[in-house]
Amino acid sequence: MIKVATDSVEDGLMPAEKIARIQVAGGSIEEVAVSADDITPDNKLVASEIGKRGDAVLIELPRESASGRWRIWVNANAVVL
Amino acid sequence: MVLTDREIQSAIESKQIKIEPQLPDPECYSSTSLDLTLSKFLRIWKKSKVVGVDQIVSPATPGYSFNDFSQVYSDPHEIGDDGFVLEPGSFVLGWTRETIELPISARLAARVEGKSSLARLGIGIHVTAPTIHAGFKGPIQLEFCNHGTLRVRIMHGMPVCQLIFEQTFGTPEKGYKGQFFGQEQSR
Predict the structure, then answer these.
(1) Contact B62 A14 (CB under 8 A)
(2) Is it the case that residue B185 has pLDDT exceeding 60?
(3) pLDDT in tens, B37-67
(4) Given this model, what pLDDT does residue B184 score?
(5) I need a surface site. Which of A35, B51, B112, B177 has the fewest CB within 10 A?
(6) CB proximity under 8 Å: A 4-63 to B
(7) 3-state secondary structure chain B
């Protein structure tokens, strides 16, 4: 598993849920509602690495994002091993 | 392949299925499913109170935030001891009391389905999104819709849905990456 930097983390619709916003490679923001356990104390999102291409890393989110995506490209410097 | 009650119990004992806060009671099982119960948390969508004004949600719009939208157009609600009445035509979000984890290495996924005891009253608990993917962790969100003509009272702690567990064929990419993280593999 990897940790991915977030733009923000907010409370979700119920106590066990958090809303994380992640910057996609290219600049747009992806929002995903996840289990609070998927957010580290320093507000990083626990995700899975799927592949790499240049300076970008393809990650799989813990759940489907608000835009309907499971996998997104993020900048490699947003990923913490 | 669908897991039977004995296989579900075995998977729970071996931590291939993790359930909190407590292990399911024997009466929560059927031959091929496991019942989950309703938590006290609901989220209730608001209706427009302004005559002539319609709410239109456009989830495909760049920058759309479900969280921003839901914070404005829904209210949190805790189910009290007198329950919560689902009015005909109403749509409400809820969650299971149990937290489920399907470790990616377990090669299991699940589907959340309704229970006939509620279905026959017109109550659906999901809207075409029943898949609990391998690697899922958390309480399961329920999308309550009252399709019937009756007012139906739901109570926290009541059996509200069932999980049907299925074996996956192989390990998903994310599990493979995790298992061999840091190693160079030729596949």
Answers:
(1) no
(2) no
(3) 999 999 999 877 788 887 788 999 988 999 8
(4) 38
(5) B51
(6) 10, 12-17, 19, 21, 28-29, 31, 33-35, 37-38, 48-51, 60, 62-63
(7) CECCHHHHHHHHHCCCCEEECCCCCHHHEECCEEEEEEEEEEEEECCCCCCCCCCCCCCCCCCCCHHHHHHHHEEEEECECCEEEECCCCEEEEEEEEEEECCHHHCEEEEEECCHHHHCCCEECCCCCCEECCCCEEEEEEEEEECCCCCEEECCCCEEEEEEEEECCCCCHHHHHHHCCCCCCCC
Domains of chain B with bracketed CATH: 5-47+67-167 (2.70.40.10)
ipTM: 0.71
Contact A49 B181 (CB under 8 A): yes
Q: Which of A14, A49, A66 sits opposite B59 (nearest CB)?
A: A66
Say yes or no for a CB contact (<8 Å) between A66 and B177.
no
**The predicted structure's pLDDT at residue B160:** 95
Query: pTM above the 0.95 mark?
Result: no
